[in-house]
Specification:
Layout (H helix, E strand, L loop, with lengths): L33 H8 L2 E6 L4 H7 L19 H7 L4 H8 L5 H15 L3 H14 L9 H11 L4 H9 L2 E6 L17 E6 L1 H5 L3 H8 L6 H15 L5 E4 L14 H12 L6 H21 L4 E3 L12 H17 L5 E3 L7 H10 L3 E4 L3 H4 L1 H14 L5 E2 L11 H21 L8 H16 L2 H6 L1
The protein binds zinc ion (ZN).
Length: 461
């Protein structure tokens, strides 16, 4: 798989202290071991995870009400669960598989027939790759599901996030979109391993009265007060957060119209008074509030990460809305040239449109988080096409997008395989030269994320 090159130490051992290569013209040879070893040695900047606080995971080990239980069933609980259900696994069997009542062997009997029906997809490949990275096993089977379960549980100790992310997955830093925090995770300070997104769902795109009141310290009854609350939220968290994140695409279109304050004001007053708003009125209010967040994000130099493309889950996605995502966002990018928009998940299955937007708009970036396991073959093709069509500085190539940290190493392995394949093919097809490769690999795996997100500011506190 590897292209040849003369041996040269690239000094990839360091992590946060290793700066992004700025100068593409500096010729560096591909190391001995070829592209594969170069990609394996290069640490990944992980721009999107949903890991809960490590302390919460440790506490949950003995919590009888907490699911998924700490056994092999956990490895089938995120994303793989959707595939298993779509492949026919009944809801009740799935519940039992992640529950606390059955033994690993009993659970294996429940999942095995459905695993066999979907084992070749990226989600299930990720389970095997993770098991291989963590436990040295090639697959989960009836004869090893107990031992894998024992090891998974035993590994949940203080420091296990760092061990899995750094030592196993060679990830230098991970950005967390905390699903447990209404706006920003305050239970721990960002550090060299983890930083946290500020989410605008509860204060703008899916506005929540209770969260607004908590942020304001009083009932928010007018649009002016709501705007002041948004300002306050950014003042409080803008310096600590690594980025703004919003996943409202799960519930609405991304066509944020320019709704003037005098139109939004009476809507907000009615909203605050718990009067019912029509869907159109709700949207207008969200549009007004989110546009203010977009302005604030630029003021605090925070890129906005937007969920685009494929929807997680099963039997629910509105594909027509997904197909509008990129047309809708291009309007926003046009109206706010000072704000940087990161369009996540390769906008799958609209990834060619995403390349077009990154090529056209200086403030639109692409992130391949989640994409390597949604559709590994298309992700590889996307990377090839992107490199030749849009500026390479517009792309971040990795985010595991997982809740259980145990599934991140598999995703990192799949991403590295895809990156290796894409670069190797570009070399074989003579679109790239050997001397281009080291700087390009460093850029797409980590350098771009360092340029786009101000981790230094976050770490300064
Ligand atoms: Zn996510």
């Amino acid at each position: 798989m590897g292209a040849t090159g003369t041996a040269l130490s690239l000094g990839m051992g360091g992590c946060a202290t290793h700066p992004a290569r700025q100068d593409w013209a500096v010729a560096s040879a591909i190391p001995e071991g070829g592209i594969q070893s170069l990609v394996e040695q290069t640490p990944l900047m992980d721009t999107h995870e949903h890991l809960p606080p490590e302390s919460k995971r440790i506490k949950a080990v003995d919590d009888k009400d907490d699911t998924p239980a700490p056994d092999f069933g956990m490895l089938f609980s995120h994303y793989a669960d959707s595939e298993l259900r779509v492949a026919g696994m009944p809801e009740e069997a799935y519940r039992k598989m992640i529950g606390r009542k059955l033994s690993p062997k009993e659970k294996w009997k429940l999942v095995a027939p459905y695993y066999g029906r979907c084992r070749h997809t990226g989600y299930l490949l990720n389970v095997r790759e993770s098991v291989c990275a963590l436990y040295g096993e090639e697959d989960i089977r009836e004869d090893n599901c107990e031992e894998i379960s024992r090891r998974l549980r035993a590994d949940i100790q203080p420091g296990f996030y760092r061990k899995i992310l750094r030592d196993v997955a060679n990830i230098e830093h991970a950005q967390i979109n905390c699903l447990q925090s209404p706006i920003y995770r305050e239970s721990e300070a960002p550090d060299d391993l983890l930083s946290f997104d500020l989410t605008t769902v509860n204060i703008a795109t899916g506005i929540n009265r209770k969260v607004l009141r908590e942020c304001a310290g009083a009932e928010v009854t007018t649009l002016k007060m709501a705007h002041e609350t948004l300002d306050k939220v950014f003042e409080k968290y803008g310096g600590k957060a690594i980025a703004v994140k919003d996943q409202c695409a799960y519930g609405r279109r991304l066509n944020f119209e320019d709704v003037p304050d005098n139109e939004a004001e009476p809507l907000f007053v009615r909203f605050a008074a718990k009067e019912e708003l029509t869907a159109q009125e709700t949207k207008a209010l969200q549009d007004n509030l989110f546009r203010r967040c977009v302005r604030l994000a630029a003021e605090y130099n925070l890129p906005i990460k937007l969920h685009t493309g494929y929807a997680a889950g099963h039997d629910s996605m509105d594909l027509s809305r997904v197909r509008d995502n990129l047309c809708d966002v291009s309007r926003l990018a046009h109206d706010f040239p000072e704000t940087r928009f990161v369009l996540m998940h390769m906008a799958y299955p609209c990834q060619h449109e995403l390349i077009a937007l990154c090529k056209q708009y200086s403030n639109i970036y692409a992130d391949m988080c989640w994409a390597w396991i949604i559709d590994p073959a298309s992700a590889t093709q996307f990377l090839k096409a992107f490199i030749m069509a849009a500026p390479a500085c517009k792309l971040c190539t990795f985010g595991g997008d997982y809740i259980p940290v145990e599934l991140v190493p598999g995703h990192a392995r799949i991403a590295r395989r895809g990156i290796t394949l894409a670069i190797t093919q570009l070399l074989q097809e003579e679109w790239l030269r050997d001397s281009d490769v080291p700087a390009l690999v460093d850029r797409i795996m980590r350098g771009n994320a360092h340029e786009l997100y101000d981790l230094k500011r976050v770490l300064k506190g």
